[in-house]
Automatic annotation (TrEMBL):
Keywords: Antibiotic biosynthesis, Glycosyltransferase, Transferase. GO terms for biological process: antibiotic biosynthetic process. One of its GO terms (molecular function) is hexosyltransferase activity. The lineage of its organism: Bacteria, Bacillati, Actinomycetota, Actinomycetes, Pseudonocardiales. This is Tylactone mycaminosyltransferase/glycosyltransferase DesVII/glycosyltransferase OleGII. Belongs to the glycosyltransferase 28 family.
């Protein structure tokens, strides 16, 4: 049947088994649900409890993975995912050899292992359920495959800077300038082999989606040629409770120190700087420090000043409105929540695109970055002192928040996606 303007859609979200990537999808999933659409979230079984904990309907598919441990072995750094520097994307197209090397590494060690464990079941489920729209986060290329096979419209839902889209476009541009016999496209080949099993062929819509949904404010986006839909970042930190102590504002500035959900899960971004050093670096600045650490992490801290409060979990969307600064690893959820509440940031970039985001943020004036390799107690303390005492940082953070407030909310995006699907003539 062809949709009329008011007819509900079937919307399938899909995500690899990674909590923070899924968290970025929850506000739009609920906006779709509240607009009357039928929403399901397909993921590997390990994510099912997190999905249902968000009040959404889970479709467990495939098998769970240990890809993060595999990456750690490749990196030679136990407990850590490989670090990739995307900052070259800010300075023009990186060298062709670097671009090809990036995709030659990522495709067989990250994307294929993550997606091959459930792409077939996801595709079969999409053929059975017949979604009108598939929304997938940037690591879940299985979403593009499933949507292509079942004929649905689909979009990438970003949770950070579009480093994959930007670097792929740069690679494709370089390949276009080379003789065909020198073409090498690991991602296109892998996706092409996967689609061939279903009688389909690869094109770039599979890798990019028909639309790309951006959550970053314009000042913090990479230039792109994609069909971009913009939406405001809305913090979601999972099921949580507001602690009693948060009702009482401190008499001194409050600084949050957090290593993020990825580090807690042990899947990515495990810190290379001991938490105790981070806390001692800022504890003597006459501030209250709130550190979110697991019990295992807390046991390594030793004796801390009374001004440091160590908590296992506290919802960042409840904590950050009462903070004057945050020190963190550069993870997407922490970064986005700090932007949302206009909190100046000191980033010790650890994972994925964090060095790029840290540099972009510093360029706006809304924060500072402390490279892991050059981090000292003195340099971190000075960075925190500056963002607390120099008003320019708070002013820049408020400008970024104003940019975010000008972006459409999830409800507006849900309505726009329905219009786009209707315009495409998609039939269920």
């Amino acid at each position: 049947m062809t949709h009329s303007s008011g007819r509900p859609m079937r919307v399938l979200f899909t995500c690899i088994d990674h909590t923070t990537h899924f968290h970025s999808m929850v506000p739009l999933a609920w906006a779709m649900r509240l607009a009357g659409h039928e929403v399901r979230v397909a993921a590997q079984p390990g994510l099912a409890e997190t999905i249902t904990g968000a009040g959404l309907t889970a479709v467990p598919l495939g098998s769970d993975h240990t890809v993060w441990e595999h990456q750690a072995a490749l990196a030679g750094q136990p407990g850590n995912a490989p670090r990739i520097d995307f900052t070259d994307l800010l300075d023009g197209a990186p060298d062709f050899a670097d671009l090809l090397g990036l995709w030659t590494i990522l495709t067989p060690t990250v994307f294929a292992p993550l997606n091959d464990l459930f792409v077939d079941e996801l595709t079969e489920y999409a053929q059975h359920w017949k979604p009108d729209l598939v929304l997938w986060e940037p690591f879940t290329y299985a979403g593009g495959v499933a949507a292509t096979v079942c004929g649905a419209r689909h979009a990438r839902l970003l949770w950070g800077a579009d480093v994959l889209g930007r670097s792929r476009r740069a690679l494709l541009g370089a390949l276009d300038r080379m003789p065909p016999e020198h073409h090498d496209d690991p991602l296109g080949e892998w996706l092409g082999w996967t689609l061939h099993r279903y009688g389909c062929t690869f094109d770039e819509d599979v890798a990019f989606g028909h639309w790309t949904i951006e959550v970053e404010p314009p000042s913090l986006r990479l230039p792109t040629d994609e069909h971009v839909l913009s939406t405001r970042y809305v913090p979601y930190n999972g099921p949580s409770r507001v602690p009693d102590w948060l009702r009482n504002p401190p008499d001194v500035p409050r600084v949050c120190v957090t290593l993020g959900v990825s580090a807690r899960d042990g899947k990515a971004g495990v810190h290379s700087v001991p938490p105790g050093e981070l806390l001692h670096a800022v504890a003597d600045l006459g501030v209250e420090v709130v550190a979110t650490l697991t019990a295992e992490q807390a046991e390594t801290l030793g004796r801390l000043p009374d001004s440091v409060r160590v908590v296992d979990r506290v919802p960042l969307h409840a904590l950050l409105p009462h903070c004057d600064a945050i020190v963190h690893h550069g993870g997407a959820g922490t970064w986005g929540t700090a932007l949302h509440y206009a909190v100046p940031q000191v980033i010790v970039p650890e994972i994925w695109d964090a060095p790029l985001k840290a540099r972009m943020l510093a360029d706006t004036g809304a924060g500072l970055t402390e490279p892991v390799g050059g981090l000292t107690t003195e340099s971190l303390r000075e960075a925190v002192r500056r963002v607390l005492t120099e008003p320019e940082f708070s002013e820049a953070a408020r400008r970024l928040r104003a940019e975010m407030e000008d972006q459409p909310g999830p409800a507006e995006l849900a309505a726009e996606l329905q219009r786009l699907v209707l315009r495409s003539g998609r039939s269920a």
